[in-house]
Input
Amino acid sequence: MLSRVAPWLASHKEGTATSGISVRVLGGADTKALTELAHQDPVTNVFILAHLEATGSAAVTSAGAGVFGIFDNATLIAACWCGANLVPVQLPPELTGMVAGAIHASGRRYASAFGPADTVLALYGHLERLGHQAHEVREDQPLMTISGPPLIEANALLATGRMADFNQILPACVAMFEEEVGYSPYLGGREFYNRRVEGLIREGHSLAYVTEAGDVIFKAELGAVTQCVTQVQGVWMNPEHRGLGLSAGYMAGVVRHAQAFAPITSLYVNSYNTRAKASYERVGFTTVNTFATVLF
Output
């Protein structure tokens, strides 16, 4: 525990007491506490819950990714995943300074931060003052969910991705990534991203319509899957087929597929992408929160 108020806490400047508040990297013994914390909002925290269901542990991974936990005496009250991405878990904005200090001290590199907008933007504010500069901040991303059947008919052409179509699906995934993020997913090497796409196909989490000629018309992935919630990511429509009103039918198919895994389907979208948001609303998605993403 902290014997005195940490210098990066807002309360240090305000002179208020924070006796008993501490931060540390979580271990296997903290798995139950982290799971219970994340289940306070299973939609917002689907990323960490999917990790916990897949690995069964809050311990640091073999790749060095881990979770910083904020404790009030012995009680876990907030957390933040720190791997290739930074993902807060029930982290209030007023405690982001403590997490930013721990992240900075760890020296770990990361590509983005995403989660509830107020928390992510507060976290980035502290990281920026510590010298961590973003190249883009997306501060308004509606988090949307659907828990019943889609409002429109699903496009029957959408199917689970097959390994036989890997060489067609992979370029579509790369095109989506470059369009969405602004740089190639191969920037750090091809092997990791290729394995990621292959894993999604093998797990049944890749969805696509691939024509007999080998053209990918639409594709999406279930990027995070738990027993309660799935999160759709990587939605991409072939540019030659955009503007024709086709995406909603494909998204209805995505929802039908996702509901075989969990009753709630979620996604988040940039607010400026009004066409995509309108398409999701046609399917039956409604906004439940606002996310933000910071790209480093």
The domain at 146-295 is CATH 3.40.630.30 (Aminopeptidase).
